[in-house]
Each structure stands twice: as C-alpha cells, then as structure tokens.
Amino acid sequence: MAFVRVFLVYLVSVVVMAALGVIAQSLFVLAGLSGVGADINLTPALSMMVDDLMGLAPIYAVIIALGFLIALPVAALVGRLLPLPRGLVFAVAGAVCIAVMLTLMKEVFFGVQLIAGARSLAGFCAQALVGGLAGLVFVTLTPAPRTSKPA
What we know:
By secondary structure, this protein is mainly α.
C-alpha cells in the first residue's frame, strides 16, 4: 500500500510541475510578445494558457515523469546519507532535474530550447523553481522514512 501512495504522490508531483511549468512558460512567452509591442489582453492570454495546457502539458509531463523517476529516488538516497532537511533535498532534486532536463532537451534538438518560455535565463530559472516546488509537493505528501532505533 505504501508503494501505491508514493506512486500516486509521484504522479501528483509530475502534474504540478507540468501544469505550473506550462503556465510559467506561457507567461514568459506572453511577456516576450508584449515586449515587442504585441497588444496582449486577458482573453487571448488565458486562451493561450489553456491551449498550452492542453497541447504542451501532456508531452512535458512525460518528459518530467522520466526525469522525476531518476531524481526522486536519488533524493531519497541522498536524504538517508546526509543529515539535511528532507524538504531541501527533494526541492533541490526537483530543481536540478528540470534544469538538467531543459539543458539536455536543448542539446538534443540542435541548440533550440523547445520550451519557449525557458529560453531566457529568467524563464529557465522559473522552470527550475517550479521543479523545486514539485519536489516540495512530493516530500510534503509522502511520509518521512522510519529511522531504526537500536535495541
């Protein structure tokens, strides 16, 4: 039963990262458009975000799921080996996972960052920050490992 709970929390963390990551990328794209003189009002902006959530989020979620499949167990191991706060370890794991994932995506696609909102340093950092938040979601919703007490 514990495995099922951890797996469900893993899925929640992936969904949180995908949804907030896509919203953040949409906001960065909208800010870029506004910066070059496009007249952006609320209705088209919301429509773009909904379209991005429907179109980009599923693909982004698969990529995030693969990254978190590596990052979260590594964070659990690091948390057992080092005397660091569990929240910090998982937040860093989530942020580093997304930063590495975005960097690898850019390398694989010939120097083009597919997540348009992550093309600027601020957008890249926002994605990593959301990854850290997803790591915090995971650690908040899963129980801390039991520590064995000597008999």
